[in-house]
Amino acid sequence: MNNLKEETNNNVLEIFCDASIKKFSNQRTFGCAGAIAVVNGSTPAGTLLKVLPDSTNNKSEITAIYLAVQLAHDIINKYGEVNNVIVYSDSKISVYGLKHWMNKWVEMMYNGVLYTPQGERVKNQEIFIQIY
Q1: What is the mean predicted confidence (pLDDT) over 51-60?
Q2: How many CA atoms lie within 13 A of 57 on its CB side?
Q3: Among 101, 82, 95, which Cα is nearest to 37's?
Q4: Prediction pTM value
Q5: Does the pLDDT value for residue 82 go beyond 90?
Q6: CA distances to 100, 101, 116, 128 from 109, in Å
Q7: Whole-Å CA distances, 18 to 29, 107, 111
Q8: How far apart (Å, rounded) are the C-alpha atoms in residues 55 and 102?
Q9: Which of 4, 10, 46, 90 pairs with 118 at a CA distance of 20 to 30 A?
Q10: Within 10 A of 86 (CB to CB), how many other CB atoms are there?
Q11: How many helices (H) and strands (E) does the chain have?
């Protein structure tokens, strides 16, 4: 990690994030969200993990993206700027929410609450707003 500063000045910070949930026989669920960062495809740069009691799969997945954004922020603050940050996620609904739907949700915001164009309250919006 000693040469991370030099590497981040010219290279890409890639962050891989994912999540899952486990449902127990008592009907409780626990999610686990994580993000792992590397520079230039091989130099470890950091990891964040979070356990989420009573979570859903979608909430866990969007939390993993939030952890990726937080990790990028922490790494850039510690080591300086990077040329590119790429976040990888396999959660189609979370990625679509951020890339395609978020601006419309913000337009539809009323009293600090995000709504879809159909007038439904956006699920897990507290996490989407933190990322935004």
Answers
A1: 96
A2: 7
A3: 82
A4: 0.89
A5: no
A6: 16, 12, 9, 13
A7: 17, 29, 32
A8: 22
A9: 90
A10: 11
A11: 5, 4
Q: Judge contact between 41 and 15, C-beta under 8 A.
A: no
Q: What pLDDT is recorded for position 80?
A: 80
42 vs 12: CA distance, rounded Å: 11
**Calpha distance 49→51 (Å, rounded):** 7
Instruction: Name the token pair of 5.
Output: 């500063």
Report which of 96, 92, 97, 82 is spatially closest to residue 128, judged by C-alpha positions. 97
Length of the chain: 132
